Structures are given as structure tokens and as C-alpha cells.
What does this fold into?
Amino acid sequence: MFSLIQWVSLGGSLFFLFVIFLLMRQKKLNEAYALLWLFVDLILIVLSLWTQGLLFLSELIGIWYPPATLFLVMIGGILLILLQYSLLLSKNQMRIMQLGQEVAMLRAELEILRKTRKDDSKDA
Amino acid sequence: MASEIYIIIPCYNESHCIADTLRELLIAVPAATLVVVNDASTDRSSEAVRGVDDRRIVLLELPFNLGIGGAVKTGLVYALRHGARVAVKFDGDGQHPADGVAALLKPLERGELDLAVGSRFMLGCDGFKSTAPRRVGIAVLCGWIHCIAGVKVRDCTSGFRAYNRAALEFAAQHYPAFDYPEPEELVLFARNGFRIGEIGVVMRERQGGISSIGPVRAAYYMVKVMLAAGIAAIRPVEKAVK
It folds into this structure.
């Protein structure tokens, strides 16, 4: 029933699912990011298993070669994840900037405090 | 020690002119606190600032380069936290006239404006007006922000600006923290209901250092600034702070 290409895509997706869970178990992958990866991977697994669904979807968008639909879904998922990364990078950039600003201000306060303390001890 | 006027001076590799700028400001605005924000300069700017030994000078040293927007924002936040009543943004390279600060503060003191912009195009033909292609660029940007936000400012890239307390509170939170923020800032302030006005000042040619905008990057600058200003014009209005 199953064609070789389906076995390959199913095997790949399942292996990837395993890797995601492994990384989560080792606390190397944050749940927030794992969720999007899992979501994309689950769609791929469903489409690999459910031949009728894949055929229907391919016909709907006019793709002659159904496995190409899998690629399309995969690329869509990757785009989504990349976008998430850009958002995260922007947020982190902002946070790093604020940290730098706080460091600069704290440094200045410290310098002023030291100076006044030195002056005070001179007076005493 | 604590004063009500804070002058924020972003500084990036300006060791040869920053000290003169500070001395001029100390004489022209004796009541002010000068906040120099050293944006991780690679030259001896920091030593040059420390060389002007005066209690009215505060040196904020950023641990890494943030760009002009990030540096200015640091100074704004510092001024706000120390209870500034008005803040002035002033270039360290000697372009801005120290005696223009009083002129910029006047409409704020009278309660006529929230944000005053020092303009090189208001006082007839006095002073340095920049090069011809750059003037064209400035005119295009001014036309653009007039179109999208109704801002009528002729010297919209001028970094010489004064903020009253309300504008400072807003700026410390929302100041565009990236490169070349001047036109975008005007759109932001106009959108949020601040009164913006232009005051004529006599600008000078920079005393040292090189312009942060070379001719090669001009096109890139224009596109980026117009995009940033355009986005600022379609952003929702922030919660009123006034």
C-alpha cells in the first residue's frame, strides 16, 4: 500500500520527533521552541500516513507530484520557525541594549559614590 | 549638584573635540548637568572627558557600541531618573552651538512647546548649512514626514533638540533606539500629540571626527529612515503620558 517515499518521509519525521523529545528530556531544548517544531513535525507525520489527505491537498493547490506538497508544508514550517527566531533576536537585542544602558548608569553611580567617599575620608 | 537641566551628549570617537564642547557648554549653561554617553569609543574619548574635571559632568560608559539612538536613550533615561525638568540633546562634535541651548529652552519654559528642534535653516544665511546633496536629502525627508505625519520641520535631521518633562518621560521610554533616529522621532512625537517647534540656531561645521553618514551609505540611510518613519506613522498611539 505504502510507497517507498512515504516510508522515507514517515521515517524521517518520526526520527525527528524522537530527536526533539530527546533534546527536551536533556533540557537542551526549551518547551517554547519545541512546541513549534513538534507542530510542524506532526503535520508532516499526518500527511505521510494519510495518503488520501495528501492527494486531496495536492489536487487542491494544483501540485501534480504529491510528495512536493510535503516539501511545501515543510518549507512553510521552516519559514514560521525562522520568523520566530527573528522575533526572538529582536527581543534579545532590545534586552541586551537595556542591560548595556543599565551597566553604564551603574558604573557612573559607582564612580560618583567612590569619589564622594574618598573626599569624605579626606575631610575626616 | 543636582540640577534641572540635563544636556545629553552622545560621543563616539570624538576625543579631539569633546573636551572643547564640554567646556563651551559649562560656560554657556552653567546650571546644567552634562551627561556624556560614551558609545564604546575606540579612541581616547573617555580620557578626554575625564580631563575636563568638573562635578557637573557625568560620564556614562556603554560596555559595547549601541549606535546613536541607543546612546541617546541611555542619557534620556539617566536624566529622567535624576529628576530632570528639561533635557537637551547635543552633539559632541562641535556642530551645535552651546549658546543655542538657551534659545531652545525658552519656548519650553514658556510652555509653548514640548519638543524644540534646533534648525540651521531658520536664521537667514548664517552658519553652516551642510552640503548641497545632503540638503536635498534633508528636504526629501522633511517632505516625507510632513506627508505622513503632518510634521512641519525644515531641519528634520537635526540632532539638537530640547525636551520638557513630559516629552522626556515619553522619550526615555519610546525613543527609537537604533541608527539615525531623528526624523522617526519627530513622527513619533507628532503622532502622540506633542507640540513640536523649530528654533533657529547657527550651526558650525563639525570640529573633528567624520560624519556618521558617508556618501556611499546615503541611499541606504534614506531608505532606512523613510521606512522607519513610515512605520512609526502607522503604529498605534502610545498611552498618553501627559
Chain A has one domain: 4-123. Chain A has a mean pLDDT of 89. The helical segments of chain A are 4-25, 31-49, 51-61, 67-123. The two ends of chain A are 94 Å apart (CA to CA).
